[in-house]
Write a structure and sequence with these properties.
With about 140 residues, the chain is mainly alpha-helical. It has one domain (about 1-135). The protein is about 80% helix and about 0% strand.
């Protein structure tokens, strides 16, 4: 739970990279992820990652230049997480993520939105019906 709290609150790009690298290592180990994924979900893994995405997207253009790899890191980690069925299910039913996606699509800078939409492959089909509910 401490790791997830740190993930949700860090502004340090290096620390963010190290924590996401650690969590990615956990995800890569099938035995470990089988034991830890449900507790991580209950502790708010999906909400923390969506919070990170939101924070990175809301940064000023100057901040984004200084942290250009951070958004890619978060998107890549979301892609890794979406390969886990129960996490993908939690993501596709998360209204906050849908709102973030809708805002990205409506924004003038659609490059970031395209990056995010690419992360789920066929799983993104589930998002389209939900977008309609938010006025996309």
């Amino acid at each position: 739970s401490r790791i997830l709290r740190i993930v949700g609150k860090t502004d340090n790009a290096t620390l963010l990279e190290k924590i996401i690298d650690f969590l990615s290592t956990i995800i890569d180990n099938r035995d470990v992820i089988a034991m830890l994924i449900q507790p991580l979900l209950k502790l708010g893994l999906v909400d923390r990652i969506i919070g990170l995405l939101t924070t990175e997207l809301e940064r000023s253009p100057d901040e984004k230049l200084d942290r250009s790899g951070s958004l890619d890191l978060v998107l890549h980690f979301m892609e890794e997480l979406s390969a886990i069925h129960c996490v993908s299910k939690a993501m596709t039913s998360n209204d906050r993520l849908i709102k973030v996606l809708v805002n990205m699509i409506k924004s003038p800078d659609k490059v970031e939105g395209c990056k995010l939409l690419c992360f789920g492959g066929d799983r993104n089909i589930k998002y389209f019906d939900r977008w309609k509910a938010f006025g996309a």
